[in-house]
Amino acid sequence: MKKNLFYLFALICSMSLFTACSDDDDPDYSKVIEEEIAGNYKGTLDIKLDGTTIASSLPKNITISKAGNSAINLLLADFTLMTMDLGDIELKNCQLSQKDNSYSFTGTQSLSIDQYQLTADVKAAGTIEDGKITVLLDIAAKLNGASQKVQVTYTGTKLTGSESSEAKITAFTFDSKFVTEQPVINEEEGTIIFKVDEKATAADLSALVPVITISEGAVVTPGSGEAKDFSNGNRVAYTVLSCLLYT
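and the corresponding structure tokens:
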């Protein structure tokens, strides 16, 4: 009997030792995460709602940080769907796997926003290779009890930190017979003022198309070449953000 118990004890010890060894064999990507993967990425979002594209090439940054020797955190801040501010998409402890020079990961998050009576389950899958990232977000949402499927595709490139942080409009012009004096930019007041023909009608000014030049590495919204309504003294707000500043 004692001999049998000894064998049983030896078997349990062997199993425990085997389990401990398997933990030690987990991949260690610490150096790769710290030196190559972690950081800020500049890119764009494409969004589909129930299979229909509702937004494309929206400028957005994401941030990746180290969560462990083989795991990362991913933050997509201030995510907006149509007019709804859904807050941060934050995927924590996403486990990395490697194939050649490519690293892939998956993650999940649940959202609940009382303001819109919205709940959502977010599933993410992404790849990172040579400073470039692609993330696919499948969002199963319920808005006021109605189910909706949102698909988000993010593609971006890691910022090196040497990019320009300047963000301003350097030129703003119109190629229109209704504009009698080209716009004058006042950086201190943050205004761009131009004059139009007194005989121009509201219809004439409802779809003026500006040509906008901005500082290198920046983005402007609305974009250059996009028609806007300047009729009846209507003011159009333009936002310029540098590649290092937009999130």
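(Above: one complete record from the training split.) The two ends are 69 Å apart (CA to CA).
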